[in-house]
């Protein structure tokens, strides 16, 4: 096992925002491999996020974002467990990043479960008709339709969207990292996006 140096701990802490002791332990668990330690911490963060999901989120903030041209604006309610976390710069930066995501992508709902079933049924019908018109075999049409619905949900539910600022990561990943970092349950309660003339 390689020696865990202060420099390694600092690098891991800078890259993850996790506490020094957790960084040291992650490095020990992964024989000093910083990249493996990051993966280890993210996996632990996910399990921590799941265990915290049932805890009440009665604090938080309403964050607003107005695009520089004044034509798009977002209001976001994001909740956490304590006002201490709600006042931190990290929490405010999280809210800002989520607002930017909403402004850029115009999602329909916070999660796929919140998308109106009538909209999903309409999209299902469109995908089915397109598959039939494309001459797809009847036995694979249902798979094609479900694949299209899954794609539609991932593009239109905020939590499942790929971040505009980081490829291959979703808003849910961003929340999971924040939960691991703060030690509190964090949830997006609701949002509203306004665009001039819409």
Helices and strands in order:
Layout: H1 6-16, H2 20-29, H3 34-52, E1 59-66, E2 72-80, H4 83-86, H5 89-105, H6 117-133, H7 138-156, H8 171-182, E3 187-195
Antiparallel strand pairs: 1-2, 2-3
What is the CATH C level class of the largest domain, in words?
A: Alpha Beta
> What general outline do the C-alpha atoms trace?
globular
Q: What's the CATH topology name of the largest domain?
A: Tetrahydropterin Synthase, Chain A
What would you call the structural class?
A: alpha+beta
Low-pLDDT segments: none
Measured as a percent range, the helix fraction is 55-70%
The number of E-state strands comes to 3
Q: What is the architecture of the largest domain at the second tier of CATH? A: 2-Layer Sandwich
Radius of gyration: 20 Å
Number of domains: 3
Question: How much of the residues is beta strand, in percent?
Answer: 5-15%
Q: CATH H-level name of the largest domain... which superfamily?
A: Elongation factor Ts, dimerisation domain
* Mean pLDDT rating: 87
The CA-CA distance between the termini, in Å, is 60 Å
String of helices and strands: HHHEEHHHHHE
Number of helices: 8
Tell me about this structure.
By secondary structure, the chain is α+β, with helices and mostly antiparallel strands. It has 3 domains: about 5-50, Helicase, Ruva Protein, domain 3; about 60-110 and about 155-195, Tetrahydropterin Synthase, Chain A; about 115-155, GTP Cyclohydrolase I, Chain A, domain 1, CATH 1.10.286. It has helices at about 5-15, 20-30, 35-50, 85, 90-105, 115-135, 140-155, 170-180; strands at about 60-65, 70-80, 185-195.
